[in-house]
Amino acid sequence: MKFRSAFLATMLCLTGTASQAADPIALRDMGSFHVGGRIAELSGLPVQDIVRVPGGPTSKLDPNGRYPVEQMYVQYFLVQNRKGKWPLLMWHGGGLTGVTYETTPDGREGWRDMFIRKGWDVYISDAVERGRSSFASPDIWKSQPVFLTQTDPWERFRIGPGAGSFDADPAKRKLLPGNQFPIEAFDAFTKQIVPRWLSTDDAVLAGYVALIDKVCPCVLLTHSQGGMFGFKAAEARPDKIKGIVSVEAASAGNLDKAPLLKSIPILGVFGDYIEQDSRWVAYRKSDFAYFDAIKAAGGSVDLIDLPKIGITGNSHMMMMDKNNREIAEQISKWLISKELADP
Amino acid sequence: MKFRSAFLATMLCLTGTASQAADPIALRDMGSFHVGGRIAELSGLPVQDIVRVPGGPTSKLDPNGRYPVEQMYVQYFLVQNRKGKWPLLMWHGGGLTGVTYETTPDGREGWRDMFIRKGWDVYISDAVERGRSSFASPDIWKSQPVFLTQTDPWERFRIGPGAGSFDADPAKRKLLPGNQFPIEAFDAFTKQIVPRWLSTDDAVLAGYVALIDKVCPCVLLTHSQGGMFGFKAAEARPDKIKGIVSVEAASAGNLDKAPLLKSIPILGVFGDYIEQDSRWVAYRKSDFAYFDAIKAAGGSVDLIDLPKIGITGNSHMMMMDKNNREIAEQISKWLISKELADP
Q1: Which residue of chain B has the CA closest to A81?
Q2: What is the pLDDT of residues B42-60, one digit of tens each?
Q3: Which residues of B246-275 are buried (b: 16+ CB within 10 A; e: fewer)?
Q4: Options 3.40.50.740, 1.10.287.600, 3.40.50.1820, 2.60.40.3500; CATH of B23-44+67-144+190-337
Q5: Which whole number is the average pLDDT over A317-326?
Q6: Residue of chain B with shortest Cα separation from A64
Q7: Does the ipTM surpass 0.90?
Q8: What CATH code is assigned to A28-36+71-142+190-337?
Q9: Which of A180, B41, B52, B101 has its Cα between 20 and 30 A from that of B17?
């Protein structure tokens, strides 16, 4: 079995005829860890009686004590044949987790595996408060999360044409014309959504900076809310960031600190339909102001406005859109042009 | 580059001299999906004004609408050289996620990668309500989660000798003598803990059954609370389950349905110190009663009582213990003996 597989792998390599997606993925290692966080202590709260397993014995739950909070979960995949010169850290947007970059909701290959196949060591994290990073009790964070309906991403992520375009009945949902989002898997996509706190930005940023201190120098690939964290983390650790690909940052960094990023090659990527939604116009405007401040300090910012290069129909979730591979190729070409990866 | 790697892989296969942990991991595919769940609808709640990004525009958050809830996140790794005859599904315990089976808190290889290296296709899930599976609003689940202090697992998972053995100061923590848990990484371990609802068992089980319907026939490897879900899921889909490895199930299935498992080879694995904690005596007793009912119906249940075969010091989190590889080897030997994997 082993011999046959090695032979097959050799044949595939020599002939190069198999489709890329069918090639095996060879990793020199993979794994995960939690990084950052702090210990919070609670005291003076009443002890509860709980039953942990149905029919099992009652046991005491004493909420007083020490809690690890604000840590961040990170999963990594280190390739056998490395072409990226630094690790590539993929940071997701608001109300989502690292799942953003995995298999698309309709089952196609996502950007994680595309970039692994391109020879990048990839680190995917769940921001503090989300997914496998866990969250803190309301006694510690003093607030409750907000929950998003299915309506929200349909209308806000430029899948449908804004307010009123979502309907419970998939057949009645209105779509921006030519949209590339795999709408048949929209309900599957919404299963990826996690609740979101509006008071944890400082903790989220601290988690990202702790990750940078652990695994960088590196290249950041950020999306939406993750864009702001990427820029602010780069302001905190400019020497550790060798490149930033910002996909539709929903807000930018601190304008007065933008000059700190002048030595970092930056790429901003924007999808379609932005002019049709005042929120996205505002978000992009704030990105542009930040980019201008970096350029004014002598820095380098490139833009890919997808419709302007003939790639149309992309929603805010372009890493899941039907043409996600085409966009990954554009990003990859830019990374190679900046000598952040071998061709 | 590609050629060199294939050559290297061939050399490793032919010579077989490299250490197992240093070999590359070859996957024919990997990915993730969410399975199961339902749509919950909320109505009649007031619309909120929120600011999604600091300094950004205010936007409306209307909590009324449709929410996907009770879906389960699943991540899979499909090996190039398959030896396991079926997929191996790893189900974690209460208050934890699939991270249980990944890299240990002190950075050693976990059971996920050990079994992948042994040729198993591995599926790791986060039970409904936890990690990347997300959770529902209190308007839908009508309850709040409970949060565990660091004291709880130290005293309850047979790391320290019960009540009073945990201390904020690591130097003052009391340890069960000879314990194999990597105590220097205990604080890192507690970062893996996620909040837990006490009212969601039916939804958790439904998620697991949905996973079985999607990817099985399969073999289950369960831990603690996951043991109960494994047995109950097997009762619901006995023909789909080809083997069960139950590591310290904290409770068993339905006694009257145990005969449904009579055609499934089952292995129960138990660690050290159980007699020193009445809770663990009670849990094991309920497992034994369930096993006896399966055997009375003509089924087959094997036991590995680790101390009885000279493997001592194992906590409840034995997949993270310093001798986790030794226990994985015992489980692997059993799987091969039941013809569930090629040697």
Answers
A1: B1
A2: 999 999 888 766 677 787 8
A3: bbbbbbbbeeebbebbbebbbbbbbbbbbe
A4: 3.40.50.1820
A5: 98
A6: B149
A7: yes
A8: 3.40.50.1820
A9: B101
